[in-house]
Each structure stands twice: as C-alpha cells, then as structure tokens.
Specification:
- The protein is α+β, with helices and mostly antiparallel strands.
- The protein has two domains: 46 residues, no CATH class; 152 residues, Leucyl/phenylalanyl-tRNA-protein transferase, C-terminal domain (Aminopeptidase, 3-Layer(aba) Sandwich), CATH 3.40.630.
- It has seven helices and ten strands.
- The two termini are 18 Å apart.
C-alpha cells in the first residue's frame, strides 16, 4: 500500500467556483500531503504561465475532461500499434517523467520543482508510469496519480508512432481488469487528441460527484516502489 504523508494545512474548495471558472487559487506548496489533498478535492497543480518562475495555480476545469473506461475508442490502426508494444508499469518512471518534462516539447510546462514533487509521490507509491516498450527501448508512456479508483493523468509522450496512445490503452485495460464500476480516468481537459480516443467533457459538479464514489474504491494492483524511506 502507498505511504500516507503528513496531512496538508491547505484546503481546496472547487465546488464554490462560478460555472466555467477553472482556477481555484494560486500558491500553496507541492508537498505530498498537499498534492493528495488537492486530487481528493478534484484539483490539480499547474503553473499559471510557462515562465519558469510562475506561481503554481490549482485548477478544477469546468467542464472537466474524463475518459470513460467503457468509452475508449481504439481504431483499427491503433489496434495494430498495440500489438507492436509491450506495456509495463513503473519500470522507468524517472525516464517517463523526464521525457514528459522535456523543455523542447511544444506547450511544455513541467518544471524541475514539479518533477521533484511527483517523483516523491512515486516513491511513496501514489504516482505511476504506464510505459510502451519496443523491445528494450522506451517508445512512449504516461504518468499520473492513483488514489482509490481515481487515476489522474498528468502527461504523456511518445518517441515512436502511437506509443503514448498504446500506453493509455494499456492503462484503461488494467483498470477494466479490476472489475469494479465507477473507476475514473481524469484527463483534465478533453483536447481533440484525447477526444478522438473517447474522452468526454462533464460538468465540475458531475466530476466531483463521480470522484467521491471513485475514491471509495480500492486501488488497482499497481507496483509499489522500493523507496520506502521517502518521508525521511
């Protein structure tokens, strides 16, 4: 089981925001307890701009992008790509988050402080990578936070064609295999790329309601990293 960090003194209340307002607040910290409190409240961190010293914003999009587990769309070509890669979990977390944080990527926003914060969450057993491998080469993947029945996707990357999509398919198949209904895959915003895979938009109120149910579910069977001294 993941290690529960010390509780955070911060509280997040997205339910009180006006409809269509995404930003809950600015500031706070990136301690593990704060991050977990945020996700359990339906909120996630992202800098308010791409400037390297920009403040951390806390976001609860309205509408919210989610990927229904039974609504995943796998095209014929993507199905063929799935046969070319092997899915692994948490065997190269550091490489995945480094690739997602590559400053050369268009729209890149993952700074060193964010990488450090999510690496610590990984060491505590809360953040995970889903990886698409071509032989012994990492071709693409994604990382996110798993709490109960919630998987909050943070970022994905690919080096080879369709590799990040295949990692997402692998994640959904893993969650399907657990069996309980009500598991929630949060993709933050339903971009056209994600919508093509089946992501949809729901209201913030609907997301928060579904989140409450998801958090009551058990975690899927994900590996727990060996770094058990991460709070030290």
């Amino acid at each position: 089981m993941p290690i529960e960090p010390p509780p955070s003194g911060y509280r997040f209340t997205p339910a009180g925001l006006p409809d269509g307002e995404d930003l809950v607040g600015v500031g706070a910290d990136l301690e593990p307890g704060t991050l977990l409190t945020a996700y359990r409240s339906g909120v996630f961190p992202m800098p308010v701009s791409r400037h390297r010293k920009a403040a951390i914003g806390w976001w609860s999009p309205d509408p919210r992008g989610v990927l229904p587990i039974e609504g995943l769309r796998v095209s014929r070509s993507l199905r063929g790509s799935c046969r070319r890669y092997e899915i692994r979990i948490d065997t190269a977390y550091d490489e995945v988050i480094r690739a997602c944080a590559d400053p050369r990527r268009p729209g890149g926003w993952i700074r060193s402080d964010i990488r450090t914060a999510y690496t610590r969450l990984h060491e505590l057993g809360w953040a995970h990578s889903v990886e698409a491998w071509s032989g012994e080469r990492l071709a693409g993947g994604l990382y996110g936070v798993a709490i109960g029945g919630l998987f909050a996707g943070e970022s994905m990357f690919h080096r080879d064609r369709d590799a990040s999509k295949v990692a997402l398919v692998g994640l959904v198949e893993l969650l399907r295999s657990v069996g309980e209904s009500g598991r929630l895959v949060d993709v933050q915003w339903a971009t056209p790329h994600l919508a093509a895979l089946g992501a949809v938009e729901v209201s913030r109120a609907r997301y928060l309601s579904d989140l409450r149910h998801a958090l009551d579910l058990p975690l899927p069977d994900l590996p727990v990293p060996r770094h058990r001294d991460a709070l030290g």
